[in-house]
Design brief:
The protein is α/β, with parallel strands linked by helices. It has six helices and five strands; from the N terminus they run βααβαβαβαβα. The protein has one domain: Rossmann fold (3-Layer(aba) Sandwich), CATH 3.40.50.1110.
Protein backbone atom coordinates (compact mmCIF):
# COMPACT_ATOMS: atom_id res chain seq x y z
CA UNK A 1 0.00 0.00 0.00
CA UNK A 2 1.29 3.46 -0.88
CA UNK A 3 2.54 5.65 1.91
CA UNK A 4 0.12 8.56 2.47
CA UNK A 5 1.91 11.84 3.10
CA UNK A 6 0.27 15.19 3.91
CA UNK A 7 2.40 18.27 3.22
CA UNK A 8 0.89 21.13 5.21
CA UNK A 9 2.20 24.65 4.71
CA UNK A 10 1.88 28.04 3.11
CA UNK A 11 2.72 29.53 -0.30
CA UNK A 12 6.07 27.76 -0.43
CA UNK A 13 4.22 24.45 -0.16
CA UNK A 14 1.53 25.63 -2.58
CA UNK A 15 4.22 26.55 -5.11
CA UNK A 16 3.93 30.33 -5.49
CA UNK A 17 6.80 31.65 -7.62
CA UNK A 18 8.79 34.73 -6.51
CA UNK A 19 6.62 37.78 -7.23
CA UNK A 20 7.56 41.12 -8.75
CA UNK A 21 4.09 42.67 -8.38
CA UNK A 22 0.95 42.17 -6.31
CA UNK A 23 -2.12 40.48 -7.72
CA UNK A 24 -0.72 37.40 -9.37
CA UNK A 25 -1.97 33.88 -8.75
CA UNK A 26 0.75 31.88 -10.47
CA UNK A 27 1.76 28.42 -9.31
CA UNK A 28 4.67 26.24 -10.28
CA UNK A 29 3.72 23.07 -12.10
CA UNK A 30 3.75 19.59 -10.58
CA UNK A 31 7.21 18.83 -11.95
CA UNK A 32 8.62 21.75 -9.92
CA UNK A 33 6.75 21.94 -6.60
CA UNK A 34 8.82 20.43 -3.81
CA UNK A 35 6.13 18.05 -2.46
CA UNK A 36 5.65 16.51 -5.91
CA UNK A 37 9.40 16.30 -6.51
CA UNK A 38 9.83 14.62 -3.13
CA UNK A 39 7.04 12.12 -3.74
CA UNK A 40 8.37 11.23 -7.19
CA UNK A 41 11.86 10.67 -5.79
CA UNK A 42 10.56 8.51 -2.93
CA UNK A 43 8.21 6.40 -5.03
CA UNK A 44 5.19 4.55 -3.68
CA UNK A 45 3.69 7.71 -2.21
CA UNK A 46 0.12 8.98 -2.16
CA UNK A 47 0.72 12.71 -1.80
CA UNK A 48 -1.68 15.28 -0.39
CA UNK A 49 -0.62 18.88 -1.02
CA UNK A 50 -2.16 21.29 1.50
CA UNK A 51 -0.46 24.63 0.96
CA UNK A 52 -2.29 27.93 1.42
CA UNK A 53 -0.58 31.22 0.53
CA UNK A 54 -0.56 33.47 3.60
CA UNK A 55 -1.15 30.69 6.14
CA UNK A 56 0.12 31.37 9.68
CA UNK A 57 0.70 28.96 12.54
CA UNK A 58 -2.04 30.42 14.75
CA UNK A 59 -2.99 33.97 13.73
CA UNK A 60 -6.26 35.23 12.31
CA UNK A 61 -4.70 37.60 9.79
CA UNK A 62 -6.40 41.03 9.96
CA UNK A 63 -5.43 41.72 6.34
CA UNK A 64 -5.73 38.37 4.57
CA UNK A 65 -8.49 36.85 6.69
CA UNK A 66 -9.13 34.63 9.70
CA UNK A 67 -8.93 31.50 7.52
CA UNK A 68 -5.15 31.98 7.34
CA UNK A 69 -4.98 30.50 10.85
CA UNK A 70 -3.60 26.96 10.49
CA UNK A 71 -5.26 25.53 13.59
CA UNK A 72 -8.74 24.80 12.18
CA UNK A 73 -7.26 23.99 8.78
CA UNK A 74 -5.01 21.31 10.23
CA UNK A 75 -7.92 19.67 12.05
CA UNK A 76 -9.88 19.57 8.80
CA UNK A 77 -6.94 18.18 6.82
CA UNK A 78 -6.16 15.49 9.38
CA UNK A 79 -9.76 14.31 9.36
CA UNK A 80 -10.51 14.59 5.65
CA UNK A 81 -7.34 12.77 4.60
CA UNK A 82 -7.09 10.12 7.35
CA UNK A 83 -5.54 7.68 7.70
CA UNK A 84 -2.13 9.24 7.10
CA UNK A 85 1.34 7.77 7.43
CA UNK A 86 3.31 11.01 7.50
CA UNK A 87 2.66 14.68 8.18
CA UNK A 88 5.16 17.29 7.02
CA UNK A 89 4.63 20.79 8.43
CA UNK A 90 6.50 23.78 7.01
CA UNK A 91 5.11 27.00 8.49
CA UNK A 92 6.36 30.13 10.21
CA UNK A 93 7.22 32.42 7.33
CA UNK A 94 4.01 34.44 7.48
CA UNK A 95 4.24 34.70 11.28
CA UNK A 96 7.34 36.87 10.66
CA UNK A 97 5.18 39.68 9.29
CA UNK A 98 5.64 42.85 11.34
CA UNK A 99 1.92 43.03 12.19
CA UNK A 100 2.25 39.90 14.34
CA UNK A 101 5.08 41.35 16.49
CA UNK A 102 7.03 38.15 15.85
CA UNK A 103 9.70 36.31 17.77
CA UNK A 104 11.21 32.87 17.30
CA UNK A 105 9.69 31.83 20.61
CA UNK A 106 6.18 32.88 19.53
CA UNK A 107 6.48 31.07 16.21
CA UNK A 108 7.68 27.92 17.94
CA UNK A 109 4.72 28.21 20.31
CA UNK A 110 2.34 28.46 17.34
CA UNK A 111 3.81 25.31 15.85
CA UNK A 112 3.64 23.59 19.23
CA UNK A 113 -0.09 24.23 19.17
CA UNK A 114 -0.35 22.47 15.80
CA UNK A 115 1.63 19.52 17.12
CA UNK A 116 -0.75 19.37 20.07
CA UNK A 117 -3.67 19.14 17.66
CA UNK A 118 -2.07 16.30 15.70
CA UNK A 119 -1.32 14.40 18.93
CA UNK A 120 -4.70 15.05 20.54
CA UNK A 121 -7.15 12.33 21.52
CA UNK A 122 -9.54 13.67 18.89
CA UNK A 123 -7.11 13.46 15.98
CA UNK A 124 -4.32 10.95 16.71
CA UNK A 125 -6.53 7.81 16.62
CA UNK A 126 -7.52 8.61 13.03
CA UNK A 127 -3.92 8.06 11.84
CA UNK A 128 -2.28 5.53 14.18
CA UNK A 129 1.51 5.66 14.11
CA UNK A 130 1.58 8.99 12.29
CA UNK A 131 5.15 10.19 11.73
CA UNK A 132 5.61 13.96 11.86
CA UNK A 133 8.43 15.96 10.33
CA UNK A 134 8.74 19.58 11.42
CA UNK A 135 10.42 21.62 8.68
CA UNK A 136 12.01 24.98 9.45
CA UNK A 137 11.27 27.18 6.44
CA UNK A 138 14.00 29.10 4.63
CA UNK A 139 14.22 32.43 6.42
CA UNK A 140 12.76 35.51 4.69
CA UNK A 141 14.91 38.50 3.86
CA UNK A 142 13.80 42.10 3.86
CA UNK A 143 13.94 42.63 0.11
CA UNK A 144 11.70 43.17 -2.85
CA UNK A 145 7.93 43.26 -2.90
CA UNK A 146 7.30 42.24 0.70
CA UNK A 147 10.14 44.09 2.44
CA UNK A 148 7.83 46.41 4.39
CA UNK A 149 5.55 43.59 5.56
CA UNK A 150 8.54 41.66 6.88
CA UNK A 151 10.37 44.61 8.42
CA UNK A 152 12.40 43.33 11.36
CA UNK A 153 12.47 39.71 10.16
CA UNK A 154 16.25 39.84 9.72
CA UNK A 155 16.63 40.20 13.47
CA UNK A 156 14.74 36.95 14.09
CA UNK A 157 16.14 34.90 11.19
CA UNK A 158 19.09 33.35 13.05
CA UNK A 159 16.88 32.24 15.95
CA UNK A 160 14.05 30.53 14.10
CA UNK A 161 15.53 27.23 12.91
CA UNK A 162 17.23 26.53 16.28
CA UNK A 163 13.94 27.22 18.09
CA UNK A 164 12.09 24.79 15.84
CA UNK A 165 14.84 22.19 16.17
CA UNK A 166 14.49 22.43 19.96
CA UNK A 167 10.72 22.08 19.69
CA UNK A 168 11.01 18.97 17.54
CA UNK A 169 13.55 17.43 19.91
CA UNK A 170 11.31 18.10 22.91
CA UNK A 171 8.50 16.14 21.21
CA UNK A 172 10.73 13.37 19.87
CA UNK A 173 9.90 14.36 16.30
CA UNK A 174 11.84 14.36 13.08
CA UNK A 175 13.28 17.76 12.09
CA UNK A 176 14.53 19.19 8.81
CA UNK A 177 16.04 22.63 8.26
CA UNK A 178 15.05 23.71 4.75
CA UNK A 179 17.29 26.76 5.11
CA UNK A 180 20.32 24.47 5.22
CA UNK A 181 19.53 23.43 1.65
CA UNK A 182 17.91 26.43 -0.04
CA UNK A 183 17.33 30.18 0.26
CA UNK A 184 14.45 32.49 -0.54
CA UNK A 185 14.56 34.52 -3.72
CA UNK A 186 15.80 38.13 -3.54
CA UNK A 187 13.03 38.97 -6.01
CA UNK A 188 10.45 39.16 -3.20
CA UNK A 189 12.30 37.97 -0.10
CA UNK A 190 9.90 35.15 0.87
CA UNK A 191 9.26 32.72 -1.98
CA UNK A 192 11.59 30.08 -3.36
CA UNK A 193 12.64 29.75 -6.97
CA UNK A 194 11.98 26.73 -9.17
CA UNK A 195 15.49 25.33 -8.78
CA UNK A 196 15.20 25.52 -5.00
CA UNK A 197 11.83 23.75 -5.03
CA UNK A 198 13.47 20.88 -6.88
CA UNK A 199 16.49 20.88 -4.57
CA UNK A 200 14.27 20.88 -1.46
CA UNK A 201 12.10 18.05 -2.76
CA UNK A 202 15.12 15.88 -3.50
CA UNK A 203 16.75 16.67 -0.14
CA UNK A 204 13.57 15.78 1.75
CA UNK A 205 13.20 12.53 -0.18
CA UNK A 206 16.72 11.58 0.86
CA UNK A 207 16.04 12.66 4.45
CA UNK A 208 12.85 10.63 4.76
CA UNK A 209 14.32 7.64 3.02
Amino acid sequence: MAQRILCFGDSNTFGTPPMEAHGGHARFGPDTRWPRVMAEAMGGVELIEEGLPGRTTCHDDPVMGAFMNAEPALRIALRSHAPLDRLLIMLGTNDLKARFAPSARKIAAGLAGLLDIAASALEAPRSPGLKITLIAPPAPIEAGLFAAEFAGAARIRPELAPALRTLAASRGLDFFDAGSQISVSPVDGIHIAASDHIALGRALAAHLG
